[in-house]
Structures are given as structure tokens and as C-alpha cells.
Write a structure and sequence with these properties.
The structure is a homodimer. The first copy, chain A, has ten helices and no strands. By secondary structure, chain A is mostly helical. Chain A has one domain: Tetracycline Repressor, domain 2 (Orthogonal Bundle). In chain A, helix 7 crosses helix 8 and helix 8 packs across helix 9. Chain A starts with a helix and ends with a helix. The interface between A and B is large, with 40 and 40 residues. Chain A binds a DNA duplex through helix 3.
DNA sequence: GTCTATAAGAAGATAGAC
DNA sequence: GTCTATCTTCTTATAGAC
């Protein structure tokens, strides 16, 4: 990894732990293994580093949204894909996504940084909301809606179901971000949540 | 309100909007209507102001926890109170608590400040977790457990039910903190959530 | 591209008059 | 208790040699 990229990497780590205002340029430089003035050959200043991080994050989030097939080029085709998923995979999907969000280093650091900085900048607040609330609700809404079968549920109910399915993941994610020692507890209760949810909303609706 | 208290009040507002590091002593003083040096007659420094805010918050949170009858002196008596609640009140309880959390000025500012500062200080992270995750889960667990009747559900299920009931409130609270314009949407979907939850878990279990 | 030296400025805190 | 003036420290950023 080149110096320019390493600066972004170390800065993201520091920003996610202490927040933008509490990180000093010299601190970033030290972790990269250079002196502060050298850093200015790569970026115009501290703000420019932050902006570069946010830009990269936007790209990655967009990429991820595409992988989830939300906001893809062809929503109708996406719906067919959801419908073809075996029901069992739906059960595991939640825990897999949870594990990814929790363990992927880049994702985890971005989420913590957004949590700290979201009130400074409307753009960051929107990014947080899209990625951790609205996109997942759309995604699970599409999955649940298609899995339950057309016409079985009203459109409104799909939104409520998506909220009921996803919100526990969101809550336990915030728990584990603050106290990683509670991950086992989190996955345990989320497993029960998924099973109970499936029992209540099973095909017998 | 005396000057000493007004300092805390204005400081809390600023800390909740910008975070501790981005608020300057002169800024707090200006809002109070004095000059920065005068402020040092009331508090030793910026950190002392923050500490005083946190101390007051802890007191209020403890008070609130008592009102919720969680961690009261007599858990057995509390359980009886829960059991005597008409089922209809359970339905409204959620929306009332949601409205309180959202509209009470002190609560809202504390929550936003904790959100920003939680990763700097383990004590703040714990306060956030207790007040916005663990206490509500205990509270709703006790309510739901008692309402469902002794022996009808296993103890584990009560924890999952509490999570499924409360998590949507938590998620929509974070939404409204970032974008107050979405409050109508939030209360709308939470109403549906409560009705659907009651239908699924109704006494016919 | 990296360094040392240093400028420039911001912000917390104090001194001492009133 | 409040003010003006000032000190001190910390941090960003630049200059210029290598």
C-alpha cells in the first residue's frame, strides 16, 4: 500500500476512535511513519484527508448497495432473484450480514466515524441514514415481500415487517460497536429473533 | 435560572450539536451573556463544565429508571403493577415514551451528546447503553412477560420479544434525531408496528 | 518525498482592576 | 462576579535544505 493510501487508512482508524477534531496531523503522520510536514506533500491538509476518506466511503457504499441489488439498473429482475431464494437462506442472511458489518474492518471504522461526525455535516447524516437504515429496510422489505408471495400482504405491512426484522440487528450492532465483548450475546439473541420471526410470519400467514 | 446553571444549559446545547472538542469556552460564555474569563469563576474549566453535565445526567437517568420502576426497591411489587395494566395501555405506552424521548429537550440533547462522545469515554458508552438499550429491554421484557402471563413463555423468549418490541423504537429514534422531519413517518410506522406486534403475540398465544 | 526549523493562529486559562 | 489584557500551549501549515 502506498503512502497516500496508508495516510487515509491510519486517519480513518484515528477518526473512528477519537473524532476528527481530536486527531492531530502529527498523529496520523507518526502512524504512517513520516513527519507531519511530509504529509502535506500528499494532501493539502487535515480536512482534505477527511474529504478523501468520505469520498472513498461513498464509492464503497454505492458498490455495496449495488451488490445488495438495491437501486440496481433493473428492479423487476431483482425482485425475481429475491423470489427464487430458498427460504432457508433468508434465515442465514441476517446473521451473515450482521457478521460482515461487525467484522469488516473498513465498514466498522466508517460506521463509528459516521456515528461521531454525523451531527457536524448533513451529508454524513444522510450517508449514515441511507446505509444503516433506509437501504437495509428497502432490502429486507423486498426480500420479505417477495418471499411472502404477491398479494398475501399489503404493501404497508411489508414496511412494518422489514422494520421488525431489521431493527433488532441495528440495535445489536450499536451494542457491539460500543462493547465488542457482547457479540456472543448479540448473535445468540439474533438467532432466536430470526427463528421466532419466521415462526410468526411463516408461509402459513 | 442562575448563571452557574445557565452555563450548563448552554454548554449542553452546544456539546450536543458540535461535540466537546468543537465547542469553545468563549462560545458558551457568549450564549450565557458573559465573557469567557468570567466563566472561570463558576467552573474550573471546560472539562469541569462537561463533568458537571454528565453528573447531572446520571442523576436524571437514575431518577427516570426509578420512575420506570426498573431497579426499584421492590421488584416483586413492580411485577404486580405491570400485571394490572390494561392491555390497551400497553399499546399506547410505546408511543408515549417515544414522544417523550423525542420531545423532551433535556433528554434529546443528552442523547445526541452521548452519541457524539460515547467513543471517547467508556463511562459515557455505558451510560448510553444502559439508558437506551439495556434498561428499555428490561422494562419491556418485564411488561411483556407479565402481560403474557406466568409460565406461558420461556424466560428466553421474553428477552427476544422485548427486543422485537423495542428495537423499532430505537431505530426510529435515531432516524428522528438526525432528521426531525421524519417524525410523522416514524410515529406512523411505529403505530402499525405495535398493532401488528399485539396481533401476533396476542393473548391467544 | 522526506526532513528540520519555524511561522501563524487558535483556544484554554490566569492576573488583577473594578 | 464581571471585565480587559495577557500568557501559555498546542496545532496547523509553510519554507527551504537534502
Amino acid at each position: 500500500m502506498n503512502t497516500k493510501q496508508r495516510i487515509l487508512d491510519e486517519a480513518l482508524t484515528l477518526f473512528s476512535e477519537k473524532g476528527f477534531a481530536n486527531v492531530f496531523v502529527g498523529e496520523i503522520a507518526e502512524r504512517v511513519g513520516i513527519k507531519a510536514p511530509s504529509l502535506y506533500k500528499h494532501y493539502k491538509g487535515k480536512q482534505a484527508i477527511f474529504d478523501a476518506i468520505i469520498e472513498e466511503m461513498h464509492h464503497r457504499f454505492l458498490e455495496q448497495a449495488r451488490l445488495l441489488r438495491i437501486r440496481g439498473d433493473n428492479p423487476e429482475q431483482d425482485a425475481e432473484v429475491y423470489g427464487s431464494l430458498p427460504e432457508d437462506r433468508l434465515v442465514r442472511l441476517g446473521l451473515d450480514l450482521f457478521g460482515y458489518e461487525l467484522h469488516d474492518d473498513y465498514t466498522r471504522r466508517c460506521r463509528k466515524m459516521l456515528t461521531i461526525e454525523q451531527f457536524h455535516n448533513q451529508d454524513l447524516a444522510s450517508a449514515y441514514m441511507s446505509h444503516y437504515v433506509d437501504d437495509p429496510l428497502l432490502y429486507h422489505g423486498a426480500l420479505l415481500g417477495t418471499a411472502a408471495g404477491k398479494g398475501v400482504l399489503r404493501a404497508e405491512d411489508v414496511k412494518v415487517m422489514a422494520l421488525q426484522f431489521y431493527a433488532p440487528f441495528y440495535l445489536m450492532l450499536t451494542v457491539c460497536d460500543r462493547d465488542p465483548g457482547r457479540e456472543a450475546e448479540a448473535t445468540g439473541i439474533l438467532e432466536k429473533h430470526i427463528r421466532l420471526f419466521n415462526k410468526l410470519y411463516g408461509r402459513s400467514v
